[in-house]
Amino acid sequence: MSRSIVRQSKFRHVFGQGAKAEQGYDDIRVSKVTWDSSFCAVNPKFLAVIVESSGGGAFLVLPLSNAGRVDKNYPLVVGHSGPVLDIDWCPHNDNILASCSEDTTAMYFCVIFVFGSKRPEHNMSGKKKSNMDRHIIDAKVTDTIVLLDEMRRSNGTFSELKSVYLDLYQALYLTRNISIRLRKSHVWQIPDHTPCRPISEPIVVLEGHSKRVGIIKWHPTARNILLTAGSDNLIIIWNVGTGESLITMDEHPDLIYNVSWNYNGSLFCTSCKDRRIRVCDPRKNEVLAERLAPHEGIRPMRAIFTREGNIFTTGFTRMSQRELGLWDPTHFEEPIALLELDTSNGVLLPFYDPDTNIVYLSGKGDSSIRYFEITEEPPYVHYISTYSSKEPQRGMGFMPKRGVDVTKCEIARLYKLHERKCEPIMMTVPRKSDLFQDDLYPDTAGPEPALEPEEWLEGRDADPLLVSMREGYVPPKSRELKVAKKNVLDSRPATRRSMSVVDGSSLPPQLLEKLVEEIQSLKATVLSQEKRICDLENKLSKYTNGTV
């Protein structure tokens, strides 16, 4: 008699459940920017959502405890002048968030010469372009802009303004690329308390991309290491503590769709518009492996590293069916697993939990979340279940493992963005016991970095420092991000220090003597008051005992 064999797994019965209405976050105007980003980032303390905003880009940061309807006047983070495209919380400091957008530092009137114009091969006089020194050209552009501004204020004649405009036009095109437009990434420190006014001053501004920056990722184990990728096909790795770029990679010939670090941060993989998946070593500045068309369709792909070092991808077939795959980067010729899902236009965004080896797939415009378990046994990628709801999702946030509720056997929590609200979705393993489930909660990555920036840059690798989930995760006290770049600190007002921490040797002698006298006087007052209190207590005890 044959008997069906059921795969043994403790995650076979994971089910998703949406939070109650009062536990969600209502009246949030989620961004409508056409960019394949999750639009949401979450950590154990805060929820951040990219929102619609007039006059530039903005995002909303809420403490997780502030569930319910969000006040329409709630302060936003509004430091960007262009639409915000991506945000990411620092894994080593729950109060630090990085964001990127379409910010530009170009003068507004320079656009007159950029739109719809072909780059001339000759200058205004008809002669070939000279090989002028770049610094001289930059200086000429700056001087011309200053002169133009002065003439506009003094009501210069049309012929004078025309002459200056032509000089500026010539200087701009002699640079061979319009390098005045620099895109920015910002790093913010979010206070624990609710701010009274919008936050507009980031602690660090990173400028280096010439086109919009659409991807931003923190390093998983090294302190203050941040990766950005822009539409200029560049990947730049920064040391946020100094505000300086460490590594620039230009190996991609087309738009980069996504970037994912591996478990210890020694490598990262990318998916690109040229239909290639690449595995890159940033410190060697080279591509170690690549695979052309892991999915035959031309629609955007996504690729992430698993804990074992394999690469999980999502994409489309030639017939526009959505597809997922698992690849070994050392043998890219054949996939470990390849699975067709359904027919839909939405790009599948993967959210991976390295502790359980479960990947959650969320597509924009979908109303469902599929989840799969990755194992070392065939067929390697096992379908578990699907969470379905009525409303489509605009984006999704994924809570780090240290933010889940261990008392309810919750192994993951996602934050689904609707058109006007954010809904938490809990993924739970049903268990009868109320005790801590060791098999569900192995030690997970903690908030302490394993490496300093200098150690990582020198070639050291280290896995994340792990913490136990047995007693539930307790967030540490907020820590300030220390920025060591000299010009950044010089541009900030000096911090006020209390008199208790001032070195006495730096005070004038007269002031020091006066302070000593005041201290002695206060000591004498305290002693006299203590004596008086003792006398009064003795008298009171005599009255109470009836001796007086």
TrEMBL record:
Domain of life: Eukaryota
Tagged with keyword Cytoplasm: no
Protein's GO biological process: actin filament organization; cell migration
Family: Belongs to the WD repeat coronin family.
Annotated WD repeat ranges: 206-248
InterPro entries, per the entry: Coronin, DUF1899, WD40/YVTN_repeat-like_dom_sf, WD40_repeat_CS, WD40_repeat_dom_sf, WD40_rpt
PANTHER family listed in its UniProt record: CORONIN, CORONIN-6
Domain DUF1899: 4-68
Annotated SMART domains: DUF1899, DUF1900, WD40
Name of the protein in its database record: Coronin
Keywords tagged on the record: Coiled coil, Repeat, WD repeat
